[in-house]
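Bug #77: duplicate submission created two jobs. Keeping one. Sequence:
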Amino acid sequence: MPRKRSNGEKSVVISLWSAGSCGRKQLEGILEYVNRRQCQWNMRIIMNPDELTADEIAREGRDGADGFIAFVNPEAAPALAASSVPTVLMSFPLPVFARRKTGLVKLVNNNDLIGRMGADYFLTLGVFASYAFVPDDQNRGWSRMRERAFCARLAERGIACSVFGRPREELGDWLAGLPKPVAVMTPFDLRAKEVLTVCRARRLSVPNEVAILGVDDDSLICEMSRPSLSSIRLDQIAYGRKAAAMLDELMRARKDVPSRTQIVEPGQIVERESTRALPPAVLLSRRMQAFIESHATEGLSPDDVARAFGVSRRLADLRFRQTSGTTLRRAIEARQLAELKRLLRETAIPIAKASLQCGFHSALWAKYVFKRNVGMTMSEWRRSGR
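Kept job's structure:
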């Protein structure tokens, strides 16, 4: 039976992986778009795409779903491809989706550029004795595209690339047998973490013997690894916003919209310990900066930063100031201010609430810091529309 809804409300099914930070950030971007545009969406959120079966897709169609934003598994892909419900596809498009001529937007990362970026980055670090790619063990299409582009870019420079193609348990022997130092790219961060774990088990030094680069910049994986993992950043929040915008466009259209592919460009390379041997003071400073970027809006203090890295407040401040030219407190405030500006610009949240949401210990202190750094009050800045 079709579900009841209020006038103008749209029923939207969202299916994303929530196991890692990527899916959660994509959902954050979707919700950000919906809230900012005040979309009247009644959302059913499926946090495990295995639950979006062919039967579920058919049932949602019968019940009057107005749109899908979906990561879909191969088993359910034919049902979604055959559906007439407006759809934004978040997973790599299987050939079956070529049959659908209208109402489908395929959001696809620029996998060729991602592979080339990895090769170019390693080439800037100096001469390695060998270069290698460890692909996704399920041989998925996006992994193959990144692998081909990585190898092709190196081939343009006359450099051969080794590609791992053995059973997973042989990865250690394969890595040990490569000429050192070796530059290793993986198609996503979890695979980079697996390579790092194998290197530690085989006592291969990272990055001195094996430099490792992942893709996604999944902070949960990259920052918690030891050494921390370098990665090509994919802006998953922007990816989610784009998905919501594309679906909104499809559902508002007064006539069938031809299916199309929307390419999403990668962000910058986030360099961490797995690709660059740096003096200890610089490594500590970079790790503190990354920690601040991730936690400043949680009410972080300089003492919290020092405790997180097991050093005294005095040493933490000294090393950070020596390598970054600013203090821990100023770095924290800069991150909080950036988030506060975003909220003032993109939302109607009251100033006092926004201040606390950004990690300032009081709205009064936030007003002082904002005026000191920006030269105007928050109200003036919001009205200026900057």
